[in-house]
Amino acid sequence: MDLGLSVATYFVLILVLLYILHRWNKTSSANFPPGPKCWPLIGNLQMLNLKDQHLTYLELAKTYGSVFSVQNGMKKTVVLVGYETVKDALVNHAEEFGERAKTEIFKDMDKGLGLTLSYGENWKVMRRFTITTLRDFGMGKSSIEDKIVEESAYLIDHIASYKGKQFSDLMILNGAVANIIVAILLGYRMNYEDPQFQRLLRLANENVRLLGAPMVLIYNMFPFLRFLPGSHKTIRRNVDEFLAFIRKTFLKHLNDLDENDQRSFIDVFFVRQKDEAEKSQRYFHDDNLTRLMRSLFAAGMETTSTTLSWGLMLMVKYPQIQEKVQEEISRVVGSAQPLYSHRVQMPFTNAVVHEIQRYSDILPQGVARETTRDITYKGYFIPKGTFVIPLLTSVLKDKTQFEKPHEFYPNHFLDDKGNFIKKDAFMPFSAGRRACAGETLARMELFMFFTSLLQKFTFRLPPGASPVDLTPGDGFTKVPKKQMICAVPRY
Fold first, then answer.
1. Residue 253 — very low, low, confident or very high, per pLDDT cuts 50/70/90?
2. How many angstroms separate the CA atoms of 342 and 330, rounded?
3. Quick check: 10 pLDDT over 80?
4. What share of the chain is helix, strand, coil (3-state, %, to 5)?
5. φ and ψ at 235, to 5 degrees?
6. Nearest to 96 by CA among 72, 117, 80
7. pLDDT digits (tens, 9 = 90+) for 153-162
8. Residues sharing a CB contact under 8 Å with residue 136, sequence separation 6 or more, in sequence order
9. pLDDT at residue 277 is higher than 80
10. Closest by CA position to 103, among listed 361, 293, 358, 370
11. What pLDDT is attached to residue 478?
12. CB within 8 A of 458, min separation 6: which ones?
């Protein structure tokens, strides 16, 4: 009897499995974007390049076109490829493609709060508050320019202390760029040698690296595997430690708070929190503030410092371009402090900075979106709640928009007369509703830090070093591999 029951059970299970296999590749809509056939449970996992998913998507686009689908585990995902498609979706259909994807690791990190990884009404409120407050603290104005000038001096002094000997640049650049957002968030800068500051930088850097780890991708696909050891657990521990530091700063700011003299982002939030208390604290509560500060610190530091690091590596790789930038700096600025306004008089340097961003392509997949409602797009039906990947690398390296998409070629941003030209396909900050809230600040930092460094130093490899390797390291963003360089004083 037991044997018969067992056989019957197995027979039923086989029928169920056959049914699943039969139904697996059918979507809820005949008009859902096409894509490769997938396996039960794992979807298209077997064909993904787990470290560089964007490379798999670029290959699939050759077969399925600019709008196609893949199945990441149990979740259908739509991929958008190429300038025309990505821009049309993010700008002309900004509302429909404007939600942040609710992946498991993002939910673990910020629980839908803060800014970068938040969604719904909370995101709208926090974005408005953040942009308004950043502008009040000088984003795009001379007051923030003064902070960048001051930090540039600290950075130059630090690099000069190596006296032309070799050093690794990324952590130093991290500290300099982070101090701009720290000055806004907390009202003061931190010393590069401060152990707490160094710890915060390491936590942020490690999380960005681990977010691109294969285990995190697998965890996002199969959340029930959260009990397993891996990168997803390290990320959560790092976030908890970072949030603990932020909470420690609350007490000091609360004790010193002067509503008539708000000196930092955190002061402004606390005043708003007090104003809102009588109504509700639906958005302006401590949990939201901690997540908001964490995301602003990470986003405000990592992408800009990584781009600067790529810039120095590229100047080492192409000394003739470095020399031409330095000649323009000397001719236009001389020994004065480079300012953001100088970019108008420095078309070649401005083109180089833009090309550094385009070529380095540090966030090739963008950050996944989610549809807010059902939409028929390019003839395909995409249901509400579908994950969407706007493949930014396919925009920045679109051969219809850039003459030499896979080469470092500053002339992409220059006309025949050497004048700077804007390119609509220049979208390193994404586009539409979810475009980077700190884009203006990042543009100022990149130009001013880059020109200040090249004004004072010539960057080159140490004697006997191997040629520059421009192959990126692993991570959520494309960080240059660690390489030692020398900064030789120009004067």
1. confident
2. 12
3. no
4. 55, 10, 35
5. -60, -45
6. 80
7. 999 999 999 9
8. 268
9. no
10. 370
11. 92
12. 322, 326, 487, 488, 490
pTM metric for this prediction: 0.91
Classify residue 101 as exposed, middle or buried by CB count within 10 Å of its CB (0-12, 13-18, 19+).
buried
What tokens appear for 252 in the block? 């000091």
Handedness of CA 462, 468, 470, 474 (dihedral sign): negative
**CA distance linking residue 456 with residue 417, whole number of Å:** 28
Tally the residues of the chain: 491
Looking at residue 487, what DSSP letter applies?
E
CB 352 within 8 A of CB 410: yes
405-456 residue pLDDT tens: 999 999 999 999 999 999 999 999 999 989 898 899 999 999 999 999 999 9
Higher pLDDT, 276 or 147: 147
Q: Which of 354, 481, 377, 372 is nearest to 429 (CA)?
A: 354
Which residue is associated with the tokens 């809820």?
28
Average pLDDT for residues 249-270, to the nearest whole number?
A: 80
Radius of gyration of the chain (CA): 24
Residue type for position 461: L
Q: For residues 387 and 99, what is the distance between their CA atoms, to the nearest angstrom?
A: 9
Per-residue confidence band for 21, with pLDDT thresholds at 50, 70 and 90 = low
pLDDT bracket for residue 139 (50, 70, 90): confident
Residue holding tokens 């000649």?
327
Question: Residue 490: in which H helix or E strand, if any?
Answer: none
Taking CA atoms, 230 is separated from 225, 322, 451, in Å, by 10, 42, 41
Tokens read off for 287: 């949990």
Q: Which residues pair with 111 in a beta bridge?
A: none
Q: What is the dihedral of CA 151, 245, 207, 216, to 10 degrees?
A: -160
- Per DSSP, what are the bridge partners of residue 99? 370
Q: How far apart are CA 35 and CA 44, in angstroms?
A: 10
**Chain segment 308-357, per-residue pLDDT in tens:** 999 999 999 999 999 999 999 999 999 999 999 999 999 999 999 999 99
20 contact partners, CB below 8 Å, separation of at least 6: 40
Take residue 269 and report the two structure tokens written for it: 């939030």
Contact (CB, 8 A) for 316 and 293? no
User: For residue 319, is it left (φ>0), alpha (ψ between -120 and 50) or beta?
Assistant: alpha
Closest CA to 453 of 362, 353, 361, 318: 353
